[in-house]
Amino acid sequence: MKPLPRSFYVRDTLEVTRDVLGTLIVHDTTEGRLAGRIVEVEAYVGEEDAACHAAAGYTSRTAPLYGPPGHAYVYFIYGMHWCVNAVTRDEGLPSAVLVRALEPLDGIELMRRRRPAARWIEELTNGPARLCRALGITGEHNGLALQRPPLLVRRGDRVPDDAVAVTARIGITKAAEWPLRWLVTDSPFVSGRRVREKARPGR
DNA sequence: TCGAAGATTGTCT
DNA sequence: GACAATCTTCGAG
Prior knowledge:
- By secondary structure, this protein is an alpha+beta fold.
- Helices cover 19% and strands 29% of the residues.
- It has helices spanning 6-9, 13-20, 63-66, 108-114, 128-135, 193-199; strands at residues 24-29, 32-45, 72-77, 81-87, 95-106, 147-148, 151-154, 164-167, 181-184.
- The model is unreliable at 194-203 (pLDDT under 50).
């Protein structure tokens, strides 16, 4: 159960995104270890991707996207939420994998305390901002390497192809139709409840 | 310096 | 299903 090496991230972003499913994200804090299995991710693929923050070019905000692969890109959105990405490809090629949902593994009681709005365990980490809240990931982690504590990604059991689905990305307005969202089909921990309700009215 | 938009979520109707 | 919360970032003036 070693951390994923940097070479894991130095590949085509779509390959990395698919392979991240099933890996484990671990945050060691003074209050204890928080960890979960990644069950939903999205790819954001460079300046030509209008939904990618790098579409704005190199700025102080997007700098980590242009930095070394295997590092975290943590951004603040809607005045209250943090979201975490893993930077991919290579320096100067700004693309990343957004972690959208986890299956909680370690530190579930601590997650419950951090996420009082969650009514049951499936709501602890089924959304990009929810999982950051539950794991205590904030701007402090922006730009950190993902190969060592406090924040790292470990190899897990590979999710077989027949358990993986690909869909359009969620919650964006630009390039929204691009099929760059991967998820573990049968996992009850994936996000997008409201989206599914919209997509299947009357059920 | 100002205004608008945003890779979301929780609450209310 | 609609909308408010809340603030950083960026581009325009």
